[in-house]
Amino acid sequence: MAATSPSVPQLFTELQRLGKEGNFSKAQKIANKILQENPKDADAFHCKVVCLVQQSCFREALDVVNSGSKKGIKELPFEKAYCLYRLNKTSEALEVLKDIPDQGQREKELTAQVYYRLGEYEKCRSIYKDLIKNSEDDYGDERETNLSAVIAASNQWGKTKLFSESGLREDTYELCYNAACLSLANNDYQTARSKLTQAEALCRKSLEEDP
């Protein structure tokens, strides 16, 4: 007697399990099976795109996203913008992001990265300041590091130099390194050297504490 094919709910259960395990290659195959049963299933379609992105298949993911509108599936503007960004189509990514109303945190994070790559440091800084002020998660250190990198980059390569933010910490090696880059850009070599030495010490300490 032939084995009964799993139902769509069973496939979704398997898809969820594989996603949690990080097995995105197999999860993509399950998403494809669901789409064979129901080509317009928006959840399976979204999962397929996410699986492709997680496997760094950005060109294929973008093609899948673009095919959605032809099938009457709701567009995925964030995923589209992210794929464009990873494919170095930065200006196109920005245009997609600008069309997203009421941007959430992930859209703002990506927009900041896009502005940084385009050298729009003032706009990038503004977004990071807003995120640092209004976010309540575990990524505060990362955002402060990015903010200090923006300020350093503006002083090295930007048309307009941004002043350092008051109260910006230097207690991680990334923050301290960015502070050194800012001093270097301002031709303050003695301070830059001191901060680089401090950054090296903080990095060594971090590696020693890392289990």
From TrEMBL:
Transmembrane segments: none annotated. It is found in: Cytoplasm; Endoplasmic reticulum. It comes from the Eukaryota. One of its GO terms (biological process) is SRP-dependent cotranslational protein targeting to membrane. Keywords: Cytoplasm, Endoplasmic reticulum, Repeat, Ribonucleoprotein, Signal recognition particle, TPR repeat. One of its GO terms (cellular component) is signal recognition particle, endoplasmic reticulum targeting. Its main location: cytoplasm. Pfam families: SRP_TPR_like. SUPFAM superfamilies: TPR-like. One of its GO terms (molecular function) is ribosome binding. Belongs to the SRP72 family. This is Signal recognition particle subunit SRP72. It comes from Exaiptasia diaphana (Tropical sea anemone).
